[in-house]
Amino acid sequence: MAGAAPEGSQFDARQFDSKMNELLSSDGQDFFTSYDEVYDSFDAMGLQENLLRGIYAYGFEKPSAIQQRGIVPFTKGLDVIQQAQSGTGKTATFCSGILQQLDYGVVECQALVLAPTRELAQQIEKVMRALGDYLGVKVHACVGGTSVREDQRILSAGVHVVVGTPGRVFDMLRRQSLRADYIKMFVLDEADEMLSRGFKDQIYDIFQLLPSKVQVGVFSATMPPEALEITRKFMNKPVRILVKRDELTLEGIKQFYVNVEKEEWKLETLCDLYETLAITQSVIFVNTRRKVDWLTDKMRSRDHTVSATHGDMDQNTRDIIMREFRSADAQDFFTSYDEVYDSFDAMDLQENLLRGIYAYGFEKPSAIQQRGIVPFTKGLDVIQQAQSGTGKTATFCSGILQQLDYNIIECQALVLAPTRELAQQIEKVMRALGDYLGVKVHACVGGTSVREDQRILSAGVHVVVGTPGRVFDMLRRQSLRPDYINMFVLDEADEMLSRGFKDQIYDIFQLLPTKVQVGVFSATMPPEALEITRKFMNKPVRILVKRDELTLEGIKQFYVNVEKEDWKLETLCDLYETLAITQSVIFVNTRRKVDWLTDKMRSRDHTVSATHGDMDQNTRDIIMREFRSGSSRVLITTDLLARGIDVQQVSLVINYDLPTQPENYLHRIGRSGRFGRKGVAINFVTGDDQRMLYDIQKFYNVAVEELPSNVADLL
């Protein structure tokens, strides 16, 4: 039998490990210590409350086998060698150990994590940030292929944890941009891979620059002798949690082989597999970069939708491809619709719909309308990603209005939106575009009379636009009859999901007829939004834009360095006294701050309006009408209302507070420069905000520049 040991010999893994330990250790038996306690729950591990919150929020319910044994010894400051395969929670093990021990009052690098690739380093950064979300951890990934200056700027502002590739980390240490004085934890992740890539000398050089008393963790899926050798140089009686080689395969993964007689027959075999099996997502490995390109071309020529990535690609391209893959751009779930229509007249729309479009002020379709209106009018399921101000709302409104049967006064289209303001804005656009068609539209939103909704619905409407809660209530009461609904649109799907409407959306969909056309429209398209489409949609046309194209054209983006939070007010008032601003929106992060800033601005004789979610619906409506009419020039608000503000004259958005999520930045700045008009976004940035500004620039692949002295010329 191939691979069998010679007769008379027997391989003993335990004996091999024992001999290896003796070879690697100067004192043989006691180089490794053991830590046998097993913790069945995270609560039993003595972790900080806010770390536990982060762990549970990330989706962990109970610790994996490696976490049950590995987290606590690391939190106790012990050196640890852990061997565990990918997918077992290895990354979360050392992230939890680090987060438990950080001193958050000291904004200095206290933990350094090395990884073999940029992608892995960025993934660790993401996990560390998520688990430490409630602790206020500051993490930065130092990797090649990114700006050295940006690394230096962020490191000088202060971080708690640096994750990076050996080359860039050593460069930052050598330049003294990364100060090693406070580093007390040093982790090597995927040590075997780093050694196989020739990073051994760099790892040694980095270790020499660290303080003498540093806790060391070595984490890897496999633990070859070279990896164990490195531990002897760095570690002090480490706890060793190794799994046997025959336990390394992930539970639940069935492994098979296919005999292929000749190399050239592999392609046919592969294509046969993909044509035979229903595969959600898959990864195909080859051994050379050249073969990646060759196989990609061959599969695309046979109409398979594939992505490809390898080391010859620049970092930005690899990031885009990986984001697309993570967002579930699988096999052939999506179809394409490549026709572009340069004019509304070419779209074969009804005459009275065209009249409404032109009367509303559109002259030619925006990029998203050129590609998005026609597939929707043809009854296709559509996923469209486009930022605010590009005519996204008019795209699905036109698609709906084209298909309605106006002789039947029954609800034929249902549109869901995350906020009352946005639902009412969509109602307004739908009514305006359908003015010459006699469309009957109604907005079903919370904060308004249930009886009035019931009265209007019983009289008959063609389209209902609403928030999930009120719409579900109307369906449940049978005031809204779903029998004739043949179009279902989710607008701002990302925001609805982030607000916890997922279950309500599912419940609503269950009540609709089985054959319903679905449109998902949003400014950003996270994986959760794409996941929802799989449950509802049938081979949708997918019109997504890359993240680096998401920032609105025509909007200049700047930042102002404000040393202290207390100085923001003076900076804001100086701006308003200096600039001639038509209308502007100021965003803050809390309702309390809306009230505080409104009082402060009014006390300095600025005419401002304010709106937030604690106000009743009627008050918010009055304030928005005043702002739209121009009687108020300044509106102070929170993210809650970012997506429902559609005012043509807004030329300036000020982020008094940076948003807490990069995705919300787009919705905020989209309030200026509506429909191609020029606008300016100004971000107030304190030392604590440097990290978020960096994240925003990285998320959208844009450079936000310092506010120039001639900003008045841009407004």
UniProtKB/TrEMBL annotation:
It holds the Pfam family DEAD. A motif (Q motif) lies at residues 40-68, 342-370. It comes from the Eukaryota. Its EC number is 3.6.4.13. Keywords: ATP-binding, Helicase, Hydrolase, Initiation factor, Nucleotide-binding, Protein biosynthesis, RNA-binding. It is an enzyme of class 3 (hydrolase). Residues 40-68, 342-370 form the DEAD-box RNA helicase Q domain. SMART domains: DEXDc (SM00487), HELICc (SM00490). It catalyses: ATP + H2O = ADP + phosphate + H(+). Residues 252-430, 554-715 form the Helicase C-terminal domain. Residues 71-241, 373-543 form the Helicase ATP-binding domain. One of its GO terms (molecular function) is translation initiation factor activity. The keyword ATP-binding applies. InterPro entries: DEAD/DEAH_box_helicase_dom, Helicase_ATP-bd, Helicase_C-like, P-loop_NTPase, RNA-helicase_DEAD-box_CS, RNA_helicase_DEAD_Q_motif. eIF4F is a multi-subunit complex, the composition of which varies with external and internal environmental conditions. It is composed of at least EIF4A, EIF4E and EIF4G. Belongs to the DEAD box helicase family. eIF4A subfamily. This is RNA helicase.
